[in-house]
């Protein structure tokens, strides 16, 4: 008997009995669809039977996309190479469709106050993001292979990090719609050379920085390599001269798309992101909450991205002024990695992130002068506009389990002219830049 969803169970019909009318009609319709594209019934029927078994007689999968799974299975059975080419073509189509979707989504976002990263993601409790997507199954040389179309949240579109790997089941082939990826549920990462620049969390009142008129970080002459991780397999590059990806990495990207059968497994057993468990904890040193990993982390491990609302500097400044004296902790981050290279930016144009109301665990990362154990690396994803990028945190050295993760906000503690003071630094580093606070602490200790 046919189930409401078209599923037919052997037990319902009896093995020797003819399939019920509804399935017979569906069977014939599938054969007709194949005949329309020049496939003989003798070829199509046995493959269809196999496919039905694979899909547990769920016709929905077989009829989807005008019998795409069936056509593919036939192609694979008759000529695996041809089947791969066909799949590669579909892959490109899928990628285009997905990119369109992503663009539409971006356009529909609130232009004045957006989340940096995943839409609607809230801090602390937010689980690691899993890309949304669809799964379809097909037979490859008689083996069931699941194909996943992932639409990944933008905050997961990141950079190459040798350990960044997916938690994808072993029979899953990933068709990536975005090229540069990191974190859970993702198969492939990109190797992008980047130099650390100095994006900073702004202490309340680093209005001087916000105006970008001066500030120590602006004077630093970094060679600012950029990772431009665009959708659809475009990566890149150095700031002044966009370069191309080349060599083994490019070859493997092409191969993943064109020869998916060579890359059936993406399950990674060593990826630290798979095991990494972040913990927000109350620091003993009056810094408020902090962040740590319960696991040992290798050097260079991706930790997380800084997520917050995207504001202009004017908006951030207004918020800061309103909060002054009330907020104990503040959560802004200037997207200033490129400031100073194009003359003076207007405050209405310069961007920053504010994790006060929306954010992720990164908002709990405390500051440590100079010898912090993580660094923020700017990553451009949606747009090559250097004023808007994501900030990805990576470990600078091996981190012991439960060691606090710290990041050098780059605060100028000597900026005493500003009406709103930075916090008193309690980082404990021997390189602490908050000299005034150290002196005060020492004289208090003497008394
Ligand atoms: C991005 S938040 C970090 C999380 C914060 N500790 C909390 O409890 O939410 C930045 C704020 O943490 C505090 N903070 C961070 N690093 C500090 C440090 N080295 N010394 C003292 N306070 C610190 C300051 O109040 C600062 O405004």
From TrEMBL:
Biased composition (Basic and acidic residues): 206-226
Domain SET: 276-410
Location of the region described as Disordered in the Swiss-Prot/TrEMBL record: 101-135, 204-227
SUPFAM superfamilies reported in the protein's UniProt record: SET domain (SSF82199)
Record-linked PANTHER family: INACTIVE HISTONE-LYSINE N-METHYLTRANSFERASE SUVR1-RELATED, OS02G0621100 PROTEIN
Name the UniProt record assigns to this protein: SET domain-containing protein
Species: Oryza punctata
